[in-house]
Structure to design on (121 residues):
């Protein structure tokens, strides 16, 4: 068990959110798509997301409030040099899932694939 909190846990989601938007827009994607990804991952409505951003909720509190999408376990691959599926610390894994989804958006992946809507049979 890792008891050390990473610096990012206490950072507000609102402080990183514009970076997600900028990364997506640089590659021709939209804020609307970033919001859709966040809503898919967290189970929040658009109003709830905007409230959390306005309240400058930190990442640890933000993810503890969310009803995370069970399909997030299908998110695999490397982000920040680490395989997301191997991250043991739960809050860090949720943050990296979000990072990975935004990366996929910026790389031009279709939303259906990003949101893991393909048939899983």
């Amino acid at each position: 068990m890792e008891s050390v909190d990473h610096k990012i846990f206490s950072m507000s989601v609102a402080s990183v959110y514009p970076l997600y938007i900028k990364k997506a827009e640089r590659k021709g994607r939209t804020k609307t798509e970033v919001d859709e990804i966040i809503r898919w991952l967290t189970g929040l409505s658009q109003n709830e997301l905007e409230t959390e951003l306005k309240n400058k909720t930190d990442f640890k509190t933000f993810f503890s409030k969310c009803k995370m999408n069970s399909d997030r376990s299908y998110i695999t691959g490397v982000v920040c040099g680490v395989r997301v599926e191997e991250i043991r610390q739960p809050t860090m894994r949720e943050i990296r899932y979000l990072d990975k989804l935004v990366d996929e958006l910026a790389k031009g992946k279709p939303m259906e694939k990003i949101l893991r809507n393909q048939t899983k049979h």
In short: The mean pLDDT is 91. Residues 90-106 form the longest helix (17 residues). The longest strand covers residues 78-79.
